[in-house]
Amino acid sequence: MIRCLRPGGLLVLAVPLCPSPLTAIPNHLVNLPPHHLSWWSAEAGATLCRVLGLEPLRIGPVPASPNAAVVLWMARLTLLRGGPARPLRRGWPALAATALAYAGARLLARVFGLPRGAAPIDIVVVARKPGPPGPGG
Questions:
Q1: Helices marked H in the chain — which ranges?
Q2: Neighbours of 75 (CB within 10 A)
Q3: Which of 5, 7, 25, 26 is most buried, by the most CB atoms less than 10 A from its CB?
Q4: What are the residue boundaries of the structural domains of the chain, listed by start?
Q5: Do the beta carbons of residue 78 and residue 24 sit within 8 Å?
């Protein structure tokens, strides 16, 4: 992405936030390859900018969208906890807990939408490549 970016151009990158409700759900398929290969924090976004020589303009969480309602309800309903050290839980009890949380979350999302106080599940990094803007902007 950086090679394609003109001097003065903006990089806008949205990635999964950690810790977040998304990372708390064990066995959630979106947390496994080929979907999310990594989870990010504000510090990781700042380090990315520093290592790539980008000027960070905004690094921070993205407010939860209505599309995330099922995930946010699942995180509240799941009986087991995941996380960076334990994204997978083995055995039928773990699979059953995830399936029950999903079923309940779908119903609650349909009835109530986003839960109150919904925490963000994504982080955005907006950074500028140093140098004057190239021809055409």
A1: 21-24, 42-52, 69-77, 92-112
A2: 24
A3: 25
A4: 10-128
A5: yes
Phi, psi angles (nearest 5°) of residue 79 = -85, -20
Digit-coded pLDDT (tens) for 15-43 = 989 888 888 888 777 776 666 667 789 99
Q: Which two tokens stand for residue 103?
A: 């079923």
Q: How many CB atoms lie within 10 A of CB 76?
A: 16
| 133, pLDDT greater than 80 | no
- As a whole number of angstroms, the distance between CA 110 and CA 107 comes to 5
Return d(Cα 41, Cα 83) in angstroms, integer: 13
Q: For residues 34, 32, 18 and 9, what is the CA-based torsion angle, rounded to 10 degrees?
A: 0
Length of the chain: 137
**Is the pLDDT higher at 22 or at 137?**
22
Burial of 9 (0-12, 13-18, 19+ CB in 10 A): middle
Question: For 131, left (φ over 0), alpha (ψ -120 to 50), or beta?
Answer: left
Q: Are 13 and 137 in contact (CB under 8 A)?
A: no
